[in-house]
Design goal:
One of its GO terms (molecular function) is 6-phosphogluconolactonase activity. Pathway: Carbohydrate degradation; pentose phosphate pathway; D-ribulose 5-phosphate from D-glucose 6-phosphate (oxidative stage): step 2/3. With 245 residues, the chain is of the alpha/beta class. The chain contains seven helices and eleven strands. The strands form three sheets. A six-stranded parallel β-sheet has the order 1-11-10-7-2-3. Helix 1 crosses helix 2 and helix 6 packs across helix 7. The two termini are 25 Å apart. 42% of the residues are buried. The structure holds the ligand O=C1O[C@H](COP(=O)(O)O)[C@@H](O)[C@H](O)[C@H]1O.
Length: 245
């Protein structure tokens, strides 16, 4: 059965960050406890800033367990670290207990860390059909169609066993640790957060199922039975809206 995608389009990156922060606030406040996997890269930065500024005192942060969908294999103070970006823009500004922050140890041996982090996820989350279930996974999208750190030349990561695996950035060769597709698709709610015209081509192909859509890992993110949202700004949505790819 084809899954309905819930789509929201905002005027610009700032409006997207505000709109998604409001959605996130309603989501976490509608339940006593939430486990969330965050995306990395640059797109969530504005969203984290809105949360720190406008929702700092309106969210019970102690009820949220934070994980990541992927991490670069670098120390936590390295400029590429997804954890560092989140810490600087969100965690340093809110009262989050350290036990609620489940960081991927990018400085550790990648294979061992993929196993260890998978174990940590398995210990904290409840399971359905032998897979851990995130309440919410926030995902970004690369202009090459990658999501989390599942790249087009590593499609096997969508199906691989294990909760986490080591991935390699196809251009830089940088090692990454990523959730596998099976774990992502087991989440109850998945939200893509995508901004900018640079992503509009790939967004259009994925959502309209045109062009090279079958080559993009993000095309295979469909959570069975849960909700799948795409939050876009006008730039990212432009090709999709014109239907011209
Ligand atoms: O490398 C990554 O890329 C994607 C997209 O990043 P962005 O900078 O274009 O927002 C991101 O979702 C992923 O977590 C990250 O590690």
């Amino acid at each position: 059965m084809k899954q309905e995608v819930e789509l929201e389009i905002f005027e610009d990156p700032r409006a997207l960050a505000s709109g998604f922060a409001l959605w996130f606030y309603n989501f976490v406040n509608s339940r006593p406890k939430t486990n969330v996997a965050l995306s990395g890269g640059s797109t969530p930065k504005l969203f984290f800033q809105v949360l720190s500024n406008e929702y700092k005192d309106r969210i019970d942060w102690s009820g949220i367990q934070f994980f990541w969908g992927d991490e670069r294999c670098v120390p936590p103070d390295h400029q590429d670290s997804n954890y560092l970006m989140t810490r600087k823009n969100l965690f340093d500004h809110i009262g989050i207990p350290s036990k609620n922050v489940h960081r991927i140890l990018g400085e550790s041996d990648p294979e061992k860390e993929a196993q260890r982090y998978g174990q940590e996820i398995g210990d904290v989350l409840s399971h359905r059909d032998s897979l851990p279930v995130f309440d919410l996974i926030i995902l970004g999208l690369g202009s090459d169609g990658h999501t989390a750190s599942i790249f087009p030349d590593q499609m096997h990561l969508l199906q691989d066993a294990g909760y986490c695996q080591v991935a390699i950035h196809p251009d830089s060769g940088q090692q990454r640790i990523t959730l596998t597709g099976k774990v992502i698709n087991q989440a109850d709610n998945i939200c893509f957060l995508v901004a900018g015209e640079g992503k509009s081509g790939v967004v259009g192909e994925i959502l309209n199922k045109t062009g090279d859509w079958e080559k993009y890992p993000a095309s295979y993110i469909h959570n069975s039975g849960g909700s799948l949202h795409w939050f876009l700004d006008r730039g990212a949505a432009s090709v999709f809206q014109n239907g011209k790819n």
